[in-house]
Design a protein that fits this description.
The protein is mostly helical. The protein is built from 6 helices and 2 strands; from the N terminus they run αβααβααα. The chain folds into 2 domains: 85 residues, no CATH class; 37 residues, no CATH class.
Length: 126
């Protein structure tokens, strides 16, 4: 359980790293290749620093040991953690209430089409 937003972001980053490593392994197995490195983008500077710092300190003492797995992944170069601005965080479309403009921008960056615009194109074709 997380007692702070930093702890919550750190726990989510660890979960994302686990899922990414598993998916990279699965794809590599299917393609008979070596698993690739996972590039994890986080918008919390404190969570990034916590994931890169193997020292046990006050900010991490309440976080369950299993969530420190991300540190091991970073040390072994299986995961690269990068900072990303809040505006560029694609996951926000799934987790936050957004204004129309930002929602449309993130939706298009994900490659999701607006149903109404697709219908208009189909009507013109038919």
């Amino acid at each position: 359980m997380a007692l702070s937003s930093c702890g919550a972001e750190y726990i989510v980053a660890t979960t994302a790293a686990c899922q990414g490593i598993w998916l990279a392994w699965l794809l590599a197995e299917l393609q008979d290749k070596k698993p690739g490195i996972i590039n994890l983008k986080i918008d919390s500077q404190s969570a990034i620093q916590l994931s890169k710092n193997p020292v046990f300190h006050d900010r991490s003492k309440h976080i369950d040991v299993r969530y420190h797995f991300i540190r091991e992944c970073i040390e072994e170069n299986r995961v690269i953690v990068e900072s990303t601005g809040t505006k560029d965080q694609l996951a926000d479309i799934l987790t936050k209430a957004l204004g129309r403009e930002q929602f449309c921008e993130l939706r298009s960056r994900l490659g999701v089409l607006d149903v109404q615009s697709v219908r208009k194109v189909q009507e013109k074709i038919c």
